[in-house]
């Protein structure tokens, strides 16, 4: 019954989305046609649309809760559970396993979309009413595509008769606390971007593109961006400790699919600020919203369909594949068409000098878009080449060579941007303000050249620019009354500092990492970086649904106390898979990363040891970037509340 | 405890490796000369593990990745240049094996794209700027 109730909730939610779209479409047309009664009419319409959007969100949430319920109860009569779960799986993974598969993750997407739509209906107060109605209409339209996809080709509630005795289990690589956190975070980010896109559609439809609209859209962009940042950071750390070879970014299509929306959202975040404060970059901001949305669609669909990881997965299920392609074409094509049709009505915004805060923000947008373009082309190129009958791979060498220099240029502009004045500024004055950051860059560059020669060019420049950016990012606080500085300025400072910290971690990892791969006997010390690591013994361990061989390692640095590390080689029986669980010791100046491999039959065990100086900065930086976003969001919210309070008093 | 380990080892045996063979000699062992090893490592991260989903041979547990690592290390040790090893692998497995797509008529657009994008972006951004007034 639970599965049927879930399916019913989905159908009802889809019907409500259709109704929401219909009311909005007819309503906005009427409102625009009768400007004299606009306020009254749109008030009535909003009163009709709001409850529909809220109930739609509640129903989608109900469907998700019911799917989680059948997973937690391990109801084998539901096909999805039988294919992706197992009775002996720990409860956390039964719960999170609900979205550890194609159908469930699509349902999670549409649930978050529905809840976000309800949130817009309940909380959005600053947007013009007609635009809000059009926005909710656009939301309903996006949701309809997903409902159709779920109901017609990816029904998560399909029954299986007869029910098997037990399920096929969840891929052990996914059996990690990361699964409970990483996909929902990314999806909230994707959906947040779709909300921003709906705002853009709404504003295009009602010809309302301007600073007020930008101020209403900004918190959604910022919120989505925070979640994307967290999702990518967490995903990167998850891959780092789970895959067992010390890598933290592989330029894998799936990773790129999450990076592209982030790049677009970062650009949008900066251009929406120009629109909100200086009324510039109107058309460009709308275009970025369209691009960001397209990227999150590509991210969601192409990852789910498997077309990027393997071209064959696409052919396995042609119906689903063509459905996905059709949806992508409708969404992205429709968005671009609307943009093309209405961009003429968007009045040109204010212009500005090349050397100005706006100028730096345009450069930021430009370079982020170029990086986005490089990642997109690099990710899709193997598919294009396959069309010409050639199988080729595009990987780290291409992305590093092509995107690396652009990213470093972006970092340099990022250091200067916040130190520029709005509208127009003097290049000479900028150089004077940048004296300390420039000095920091030069000193760092010289220092690394002298004391650590032989570093590759990209990491070397990365380290030097990270030092300069760190100095420049806190520069906006110099000479200011720190207690009167608005919270969102702190947000910007901390986010930019986070980029510097993260960049330093990436460059340090690629410049200074040391690896030791050996077949080790018990008791023989091995050297890696400043550590001496000894294999003390191997012992079996039993987990809830796995067994493992655990290595007991003790690591010593100089005459310091020994650190115990316990990497495992795990064996799962459902499905039959082995994984290596790395053991990582985090020190102030880096991480010691250890993995146990196979025995060689002669009493020796394969050990993989890495010493990675300051690698933790990568994720610490990611956390700082997100924290800056949170402060910024909070700061804007406080200011709006105060402004509204003042209005109420007056 | 010993018996448990034995049982575990028996259960685990088929899972541990794709075949019953021990891993290739240099699959998981570094070269003695750090400069040569660094050369091998730099090459390995740009070679695709052909049986994995988007991993280089430098970070894969697959048996074939181990064999390829051993091959790369053996040839580097023998003094062969990374470029020639890559070439040898490409003739054997096709362009698919290298993550660094070689320049050809088909890949030219890929390598030109970054510069083209930058130029197009600059042209696009030009409209936003006001001509600077003198004085």
- First and last CA, distance of chain B: 88 Å
| Largest sheet geometry of chain A | 6 strands, antiparallel
Rg result of chain B: 23 Å
Looking at the structure, what is the overall shape of chain A?
A: globular
Biggest sheet details of chain B: none
Computed CA radius of gyration of chain A, to the nearest angstrom: 27 Å
Structure description:
Chain A is built from 19 helices and ten strands. Chain A is of the alpha+beta class and 650 residues long. Among the domains of chain A are: 175 residues, no CATH class; 102 residues, no CATH class; 100 residues. The radius of gyration of chain A is 27 Å and the shape is globular. Chain B has one domain: Cytochrome C biogenesis protein (Helicase, Ruva Protein, domain 3). In chain B, 53% of the residues lie in helices and 0% in strands. In chain B, α2 crosses α3. The longest helix of chain B is centred in the C-terminal third of the chain and has 18 residues. The interface between A and B is large, with 68 and 51 residues.
Task: Please tag this protein with its features.
heterodimer, A: 65% helix, globular, B: disordered N terminus, Cyt_c_assembly (chain A)
How is the secondary structure organized here?
The complex is a heterodimer of chains A (650) and B (135).
Chain A: H1 2-33, H2 38-72, H3 79-84, H4 91-96, H5 102-123, H6 129-153, H7 177-205, H8 211-243, H9 253-278, H10 282-305, H11 311-316, H12 318-342, H13 357-387, H14 396-416, H15 427-433, H16 435-451, H17 457-474, H18 487-512, E1 514-520, E2 525-528, E3 531-542, E4 546-557, E5 563-565, E6 568-573, E7 576-581, E8 583-587, E9 590-599, E10 605-613, H19 617-649
Antiparallel strand pairs in A: 1-10, 2-3, 3-4, 4-5, 4-6, 6-7, 8-9, 9-10
Chain B: H1 2-16, H2 34-44, H3 63-77, H4 82-93, H5 108-125
Helix pairs in contact in B: 2-3
Protein name (chain B): Cytochrome c-type biogenesis protein
InterPro entries (chain B): C-type_cytochrome_biogenesis (IPR051263), CcmH/CycL/Ccl2/NrfF_N (IPR005616), CcmH/CycL/NrfF/Ccl2_sf (IPR038297)
Pfam family, one (chain B): CcmH
């Amino acid at each position: 019954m639970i599965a049927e109730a879930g399916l019913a909730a989905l159908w009802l939610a889809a019907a409500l989305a259709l109704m929401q779209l219909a009311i909005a479409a007819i309503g906005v047309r009427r409102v625009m046609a009768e400007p004299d009664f606009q306020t009254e009419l749109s008030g009535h319409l909003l009163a009709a649309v709001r409850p529909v959007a809220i109930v739609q969100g509640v129903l989608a949430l109900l469907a998700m809760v019911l799917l989680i319920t059948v997973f937690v109860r391990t109801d084998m009569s539901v096909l999805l559970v039988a294919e992706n779960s197992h009775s002996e799986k720990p409860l956390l993974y039964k719960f999170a396993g609900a979205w550890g598969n194609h159908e469930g993750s699509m349902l999670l997407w549409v649930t978050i979309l529905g809840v976000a739509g309800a949130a817009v209906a309940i909380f959005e107060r600053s947007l013009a009413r007609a635009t809000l109605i059009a926005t909710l209409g656009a939301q309903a339209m996006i949701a309809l595509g997903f409902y159709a996809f779920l109901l017609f080709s990816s029904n998560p509630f399909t029954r299986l008769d007869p029910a098997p005795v037990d399920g096929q289990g969840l891929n052990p690589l996914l059996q990690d606390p990361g699964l409970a956190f990483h996909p929902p975070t990314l999806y909230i980010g994707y959906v947040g971007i779709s909300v921003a896109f709906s705002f853009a559609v709404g504003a295009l439809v009602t010809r309302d593109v301007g600073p007020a609209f930008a101020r209403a859209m900004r918190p959604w962009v910022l919120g989505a961006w925070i979640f994307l940042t967290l999702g990518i950071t967490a995903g990167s750390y998850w891959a780092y400790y789970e895959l067992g070879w010390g890598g933290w970014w592989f330029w894998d299509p799936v990773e790129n699919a999450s990076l592209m929306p982030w790049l677009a959202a970062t650009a949008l975040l900066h251009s929406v600020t120009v629109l909100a404060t200086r009324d510039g970059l109107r058309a460009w901001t709308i275009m970025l919203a369209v691009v960001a949305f397209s990227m999150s669609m590509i991210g969601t669909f192409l990852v789910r369909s498997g077309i990027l990881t393997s071209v064959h997965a696409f052919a396995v299920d042609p119906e689903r594949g063509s459905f996905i392609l059709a949806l992508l074409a409708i969404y992205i094509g429709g968005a671009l068409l609307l943009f093309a049709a209405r961009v003429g009505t968007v009045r040109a915004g204010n212009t500005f000098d090349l050397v100005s805060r706006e100028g730096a923000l345009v450069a930021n947008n430009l370079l982020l878009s170029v990086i986005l373009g490089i990642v997109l082309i690099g990710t899709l190129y193997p598919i294009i080449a396959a069309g010409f009958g050639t199988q080729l791979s595009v990987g780290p060498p291409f992305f590093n060579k092509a995107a690396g220099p652009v990213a470093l240029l972006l970092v340099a502009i990022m250091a200067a941007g916040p130190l520029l004045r709005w509208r127009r500024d003097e290049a000479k004055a900028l150089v004077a303000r940048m004296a300390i950051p420039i000095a920091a860059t030069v000193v760092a560059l010289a220092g690394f050249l002298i004391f650590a020669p032989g570093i590759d060019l990209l990491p070397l420049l990365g380290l030097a620019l990270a030092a300069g950016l760190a100095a420049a990012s806190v520069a906006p606080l110099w000479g200011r009354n720190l207690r009167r500085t608005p919270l969102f300025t702190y947000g910007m400072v901390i986010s930019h500092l986070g980029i510097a910290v993260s960049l330093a971690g990436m460059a340090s990892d690629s410049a200074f990492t040391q690896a030791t791969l050996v077949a080790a006997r018990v008791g023989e010390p091995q050297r890696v970086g400043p550590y001496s690591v000894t294999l003390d013994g191997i012992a079996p361990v039993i987990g809830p649904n796995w067994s493992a061989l655990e290595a007991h390692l003790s690591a010593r640095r100089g005459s310091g106390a020994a650190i115990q590390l316990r990497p495992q080689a795990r064996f799962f029986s459902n499905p039959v898979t082995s994984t290596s669980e790395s053991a990582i010791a985090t020190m102030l100046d880096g991480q010691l990363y250890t993995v146990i491999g196979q025995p060689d039959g002669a009493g020796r065990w394969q050990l993989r040891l890495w010493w990675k100086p300051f690698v933790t900065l990568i994720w610490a930086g990611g956390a700082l970037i997100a924290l800056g976003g949170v402060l910024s969001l909070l700061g804007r919210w406080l200011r709006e509340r105060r402004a509204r309070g003042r209005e109420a008093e007056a | 405890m010993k018996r448990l380990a034995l049982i575990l080892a028996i259960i685990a045996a088929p899972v541990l490796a794709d075949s019953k063979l021990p891993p290739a000699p240099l699959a998981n062992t570094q070269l003695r000369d750090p400069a040569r090893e660094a050369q091998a490592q730099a090459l390995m991260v740009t070679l695709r593990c052909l049986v994995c989903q988007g991993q280089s041979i430098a970070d894969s547990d697959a048996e074939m990745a181990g064999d390829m690592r051993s091959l790369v290390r053996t040839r580097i040790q023998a003094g062969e240049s990374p470029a020639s090893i890559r070439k040898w692998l490409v003739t054997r497995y096709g362009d698919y094996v290298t993550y660094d797509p070689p320049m050809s008529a088909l890949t030219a657009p890929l390598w030109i794209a970054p510069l083209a994008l930058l130029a197009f972006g600059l042209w696009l951004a030009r409209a936003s700027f006001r001509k600077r007034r003198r004085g």
